[in-house]
Design brief:
The protein is mainly alpha-helical and 116 residues long. The protein has helices spanning 8-24, 30-53, 59-86, 94-115.
């Protein structure tokens, strides 16, 4: 039986990609663009900052970059909640993205806690 290796970087990249595809389908009005742009930036930034964290030379630097990634995931979660309340997005995708954001937040917070 093969054991699948857990790869947080891949999950963050997948999340960023799903967020980007979700944002492409948002309305082109002022509200869709505002929250879509916020979500697109924070969802992508979580993956990019984690990538930077992996290249750090000290625990302090790692915690700093991972903490930024955590902050961006939390921002993504709030943007998704706002879009859900507004009803201006593909409502079937929001619970899936929210669930993944919540899981990634918990994982990232645990990693940071264990590095301290």
């Amino acid at each position: 039986m093969s054991v699948k290796k857990f790869d947080l970087e891949n999950r963050l990249v997948e999340f960023a990609a799903h967020v980007a595809l979700f944002c492409k389908k948002l309305p082109k009005d002022m509200v869709g663009q505002y929250y879509g742009n916020q979500l697109l930036r924070s969802g992508g930034s979580a993956a990019l900052n984690f990538g930077e964290a992996q290249g750090t030379n000290s625990n302090k630097d790692y915690i700093n970059k991972a903490s930024i990634s955590l902050k961006e995931l939390k921002e993504s979660r709030v943007s998704l909640k706002v879009l859900h309340k507004l009803g201006c997005a593909d409502q079937s995708q929001i619970p899936i993205l929210l669930d993944e954001a919540e899981q990634l937040i918990k994982i990232m917070a645990t990693i940071i806690k264990n590095k301290k």
